[in-house]
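Need the bound structure for IPE, inputs here:
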Amino acid sequence: MIGTSPTTKRIALLPNHVAIIMDGNGRWAEKQGLPRLEGHRAGVENIRPIIECLDEYRIRCVTLYAFSTENWDRPEDEINGLLYLLEEALDKEVPKLHKRGIRIRHIGRLEELAAGPQLAIRKAIELTKNNTGITFSFAFNYGGRIEILDAVRCIIAKGIPPENIDENLFNSYLYTASLPNVDLLIRTGGELRISNFLLWQAAYSEYYFTEVLWPDFDRKEVEKALIAYSQRQRRFGGL
Ligand code: IPE
Ligand code: IPE
Ligand code: MG
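Answer from helper R.:
Posting the output first, comments after.
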């Protein structure tokens, strides 16, 4: 389905790159008296429909924050549950994403993940690398500060002279190298912070915060965020 619906036509200006902090899974479950992991399950199930919806709007890149470098501080049970859900979801969803021409990337420290999920992510990247549809970057074990430090370490290790380091070069050492800057950054779940997500890439993003918990964030909510974006005036410091 290509973006020719009346809604698509109504939205005058669409972002190129949408990033989402998928927050609120735990509270979604707790509200219904369910274990937190059920919220994560519902959250994971919401990923493909939202990517497909953004694809229908012909958005070129979507980056989803699924697990931060700080999330290791959670109880072991929750972490193990999340990793299990990740592997299960990759098995089930990647063939469908591939069929749709979606290109999957990972951002974060992949090498720190256990062998199972790590391999599943590597396979997904390999399978979809030549696809030309929306680029879906999956942020798992991602931290904005560690990303910047990893880039600095790499630049120093390569012996690049300080005078050669400019924004373009630095950008090319980030996990997101070759992706455009984030135009619209959405956070579900009501918190008004970015929790170490895309610190460099979102320097001039438009921010959209919603109380809606991630498992409830549906097509209508996507549309609301896109309409809000289209009404913003981006100045980038100019007039
Ligand atoms: C977001 O949901 C998913 C992860 C951070 C892994 P949370 O688990 O943070 O849900 P809340 O914020 O506790 O409701
Ligand atoms: C941010 O959510 C990370 C992800 C959604 C993956 P958190 O729930 O971890 O963030 P804080 O702790 O509220 O800042
Ligand atoms: Mg949270």
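Comments: The chain has nine helices and six strands. The mean pLDDT is 96.
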